[in-house]
TrEMBL record, chain A:
Residues 144-154 have a biased composition (Low complexity). The keyword Membrane applies. Residues 73-165, 211-247 are annotated as: Disordered. The chain crosses the membrane at residues 50-72. Keywords: Membrane, Transmembrane, Transmembrane helix. Residues 74-85 have a biased composition (Polar residues). It comes from Embleya hyalina. This is Uncharacterized protein. The lineage of its organism: Bacteria, Bacillati, Actinomycetota, Actinomycetes, Kitasatosporales.
Automatic annotation (TrEMBL), chain B:
Transmembrane segments: none annotated. This is RNA polymerase sigma24 factor. One of its GO terms (molecular function) is sigma factor activity. InterPro entries: RNA_pol_sigma-70-like, RNA_pol_sigma-70_dom, RNA_pol_sigma-E_actinobac, RNA_pol_sigma70_r4_t2, RNA_pol_sigma_r2, RNA_pol_sigma_r3/r4-like, WH-like_DNA-bd_sf. Residues 1-33 are annotated as: Disordered. Pfam families: Sigma70_r4_2. Belongs to the sigma-70 factor family. ECF subfamily. Residues 148-198 form the RNA polymerase sigma factor 70 region 4 type domain. Residues 17-29 have a biased composition (Low complexity). Keywords: DNA-binding, Sigma factor, Transcription, Transcription regulation.
């Protein structure tokens, strides 16, 4: 290792370059909000989250108890127990914890919006469950709630991807990548990469001068997909063989309506000679700076269609550059 | 993609020897110290804090971990756990940044190895999943040749992979790798040599 011979030199150089390229794909803004371990903050957070409400409850109980003892010495014992049991507060006052994905439905009848489904294929809406989606997104195991993390905000931003909501309550799981990207996983139990298993929901500035994908200049081309064509088998990228390299072809192009806004719909098919083919699909709401895309979802997966069908932009505004 | 055009923040684990300098240049503000409590004497040099180290080194550690576990979310979890362990061990004030960095680096490698072990166990029960190096953002910048190399690295034995990552990405010496992994220098040298041979063979096999 310390005296690499000529044979190893090219491998070593290649290894260095590949590792550097892979590491450079991780940039600071792709990371979750920083949350350094800190005893004071956690104690303060615990006091705020547990101590204060507990004190308020105890104080209220003491006041109520005192009033009842002083002001109502003749309790009607015939009152049914049921009527004296305090009722829980209405769920409308329940505030989702920071760090949780809030996807409150804005309509009582979620299926009402399914007519806005802009997908060229029929989509299946899950209307059996209309509860708000308050399941937590992934979070570092020892991190504090986002509100305690430096640089994070307790108030949801309207130009953040979390402001893009869903009107139906499906059985999916939303995993936030950063302020502008999140993945909707069809299988809530799945904890791996979004590629081949979920739909990306992303937001971007309007107009976007960064030249990122998707772009008007390339979205109508055969090689206009988000990736350099690579091969995938069962949702997992595999190395293409030298003779059966992947080819990408634009297979669908239309304008549809998504969440009440015009959207460009594109689909590409990537074919690898010895591996098979997979589809890349894109819904791009140009004037809203919102796009949903999938890469290599299994045939029959309708997660993207369901996401598109239930998209709710009523609380969202595009970020500015 | 635009995602990848953003400037990186913080230090990079590729230059471990500069940890002390970077840690003191972290983003978190210094805490005021009351001179009167020290009898009016001159303050001793401020010690770097774990919070500063976190801001300065988190990105580099996530990059180190992702080369081992190949999944960003998992790498972030690993690094968060490593910093938490560091905090439990050293507290907020770090007397010896080099020592803390060594502890942190070892924690990241060990926790990444634990992840791989759990992943192998899980594969006995669920359909296999190889979280490879290709989210759309990643694939757009990784050449096919790099993907091929990284794919081969992922097929190496965990210990071989760790040695290669520490040697060829972190640019650590044999002695540093030995300390980090708890191996002898001889074991590091032989592991690296075998790993390069295995890597070369895997890549040749793929081409043929």
């Amino acid at each position: 290792m310390t005296e690499p011979n000529a044979r190893d030199e090219s491998v070593e150089d290649l290894l260095r370059a590949a590792m550097a390229a892979r590491a450079d794909t991780v940039t600071a803004h792709r990371l979750r909000p920083p949350a350094p371990p800190h005893a004071d903050r956690s104690a303060h957070s615990r006091w705020k989250s547990i101590g204060l409400p507990l004190s308020a409850v105890l104080l209220a109980a003491a006041v109520v108890g005192g009033v009842s003892l002083v002001g109502a010495p003749t309790t009607n014992r015939s009152t049914p127990l049921q009527s004296r049991v305090p009722t829980p507060p209405p769920t409308a006052f329940v505030t989702p914890s920071p760090g949780m994905t809030s996807a409150l439905p804005t309509h009582d009848a979620p299926t009402d919006v399914l007519e806005a489904n802009g997908t060229p294929e029929s989509s299946t809406a899950e209307s059996e469950d209309t509860r708000p989606d308050t399941r937590p997104t992934t979070r570092p195991p020892s991190s504090k709630p986002a509100s305690t993390a430096p640089g994070s905000s307790t108030k949801p931003r309207s130009d953040d991807v979390s402001a893009v909501r869903f009107r139906t309550q499906p059985s999916w799981r939303v995993v936030r990548a950063d302020a502008r990207h999140e993945c909707v996983l069809a299988d809530p139990a799945y904890t791996g990469d979004c590629l081949g298993h979920g739909a990306w929901v992303s937001v971007r500035p309007v107009p976007d001068a960064s030249g990122g994908w998707p772009a008007e200049a390339t979205v109508d081309k055969d090689d206009g997909g988000p990736t350099r064509p690579s091969c995938m088998r069962d949702g997992v990228p595999v190395t293409p063989s030298p003779h059966g390299g992947p080819t990408m072809r634009l297979t669908a192009k239309s304008t549809v309506t998504v969440a009440g806004h015009p959207a460009k719909y594109r689909s590409w098919t990537v074919t690898c000679a010895e591996v098979g083919s997979y589809d890349i699909r894109l819904w791009w709401l140009v004037d809203q700076g919102v796009y949903i895309h999938t890469v290599g979802l299994p045939a029959g997966s309708d997660i993207a269609d369901r996401v598109v069908a239930s998209l709710d932009l009523s609380g969202y505004k595009p970020p500015t550059s | 993609m635009a995602l990848l055009s953003m400037p990186a923040f913080g230090g990079d684990e590729r230059s471990p020897d500069s940890a002390s300098d970077d840690a003191t240049a972290g983003a978190a503000p210094r805490r005021p110290r009351l001179r009167i409590l020290r009898g009016g004497r001159e303050e001793p040099p401020a010690r770097p804090t774990l919070t500063e180290l976190y801001h300065a080194r988190r990105l580099g550690m996530v990059r180190l971990s992702i080369l081992l576990v190949d999944d960003l979310g998992t790498a972030e979890d690993v690094v968060q756990d490593a910093f938490t362990a560091l905090y439990r061990r050293f507290g907020e004030d770090l007397d010896d940044v080099d020592n803390a960095m060594a502890y942190l680096r070892t924690s990241v490698v060990n926790l990444s190895r634990s992840v791989l072990r759990r992943r192998r166990t899980a594969r006995a029960y669920v359909p296999p999943h190889e979280p490879a190096a290709a989210s759309p953002e990643d694939a757009v910048v990784l050449s096919e040749e790099h993907l091929r190399v990284l794919g081969a690295v992922q097929r190496l034995a965990p210990r071989q992979r760790e040695v290669l990552v520490l040697r060829y990405w972190s640019d650590m010496t044999e002695a540093q790798i030995a300390e980090t992994l708890g191996l002898s220098r001889g074991a590091v040298k032989s592991t690296a040599s075998r790993a390069i041979d295995a890597l070369e063979k895997l890549m040749k096999d793929e081409q043929s």
